Predict the 3D structure of the following.
Amino acid sequence: MKIEQTPINDLVIIEPAVFGDERGYFFEAYSQTKMEAVGINITFVQDNQSFSKKGTLRGLHYQNPPYAQTKLVRVLEGEIIDVAVDLRKDSPTYGESFSVKLTAENKKQLLVPQGFAHGFSVLSETAVVLYKCDQFYNKASEGGIRYDDPSLNIDWGMDLKDAIVSEKDQVLPFMEVCNSLF
């Protein structure tokens, strides 16, 4: 397992060791022992999976404490641009975003810690995304930021006028007035 630190502290890309032969491939998508060996001590309690078609944009979502979630995101089918925004007010990278292309082919995963908003856009015809969470969903603690917030200047890899966005995500507040408690 290879751990790559991003420019934002605590936000890391995890690349598993893939073993392939004429039959196909095998890899450990998650190993608590290996994660703990590199200093990542998280107990996941819930797996979520989504299916989306090309042009779908989901996010940017988070849950406030005490139900804040760490997410380990990977793509089972297709290709996405995965985005995290640092909401930790005491962080030197507060308000900065990071994006990475996650695909079924590259098998990379993004570990999004508590204190970040998260979202993704679908680049392939369809995509199946799986993410592990260390807290259960709690509707009362959910929050979000507009995907097209000009202060974030996120490149979603698509023309936003063509994006398929839920009504809920279209009316999220801009970062400067979001209800983040981090």
In short: The helical segments are 32-37, 167-170. DSSP finds two helices and 13 strands in the chain.
